[in-house]
Amino acid sequence: MSELDVRIVRLEPMRVASVRATSTEPEHEAWLKLQAWAEPRGLLDDLEKHPVFGFNNPNPSEDREEYGYEFWIRVDEDVESDDVVRVLEFQGGRYAVTTCKLMNDPNGNMPEVWMKLYEWVKESEYEWQQTQELEKPHDLTSADDDLLLDLFLPIEG
């Protein structure tokens, strides 16, 4: 098993457009919504300027098959909420970040890597901050087998 590589990152506040889907596979549905909205606006052409983040909302649970997934993309000040996206102000913050593959990662499957990141924070000088965890895909066109994600766990300290 590989050693978990963790770096500390500060995300600056940003204005984001949000889309969400709820189903048994909401990640793909939410992505298709975001892609249909963002691609014609050229937002997916520059992922440095318009990074994409995602997270479960609501989280999966044992008592129901469906759960939600929400995507955010950074947008400029002139973008407003419409019938597809809801525009939000993200406050930013400090994060412990590690990278993993969606599938077949040497450190385990993605939920296991999330737990290892949480354990890393518990054993470090930092404390977990109970705000939104984020997942940032490296290449939005990757197949699930090849998809690399940065996992962002909010921290204080």
| Helical content (DSSP H or I, runs of 4+) | 10-25%
Give the low-pLDDT segments: none
Number of strands: 9
Distance between the termini: 28 Å
Radius of gyration: 16 Å
Structural class: alpha+beta
CATH level-four homologous superfamily name: Regulatory factor, effector binding domain
Determine and state the CATH class.
Alpha Beta
Domain module tally = 1
The portion of residues forming beta strands comes to: 35-45%
How many DSSP H or I helices? Answer: 2
CATH architecture: Alpha-Beta Barrel
What overall form do the CA principal axes indicate? globular
Order of helices and strands: EEHEEEEHEEE
Biggest sheet overview: 5 strands, antiparallel
Reported by name, the CATH topology is: Multidrug-efflux Transporter 1 Regulator Bmrr, Chain A
Q: Round the mean pLDDT to the nearest integer and report it.
A: 94
Task: Give structural notes.
The protein has one domain: Regulatory factor, effector binding domain (Multidrug-efflux Transporter 1 Regulator Bmrr, Chain A, Alpha-Beta Barrel). 17% of the residues lie in helices and 36% in strands. It is built from 2 helices and 9 strands, in the order E-E-H-E-E-E-E-H-E-E-E. The longest helix is centred in the last third of the chain and has 14 residues, at 110-123. It has helices at 26-38, 110-123, and strands at residues 7-11, 14-23, 52-56, 67-74, 86-90, 93-101, 127-128, 134-137, 148-156. The model has no long low-confidence stretch (mean pLDDT 94). The two termini are 28 Å apart. With 157 residues, it is an alpha+beta fold. The strands form 2 sheets. Strands 1, 6, 7, 8 and 9 form a 5-stranded antiparallel sheet that branches.
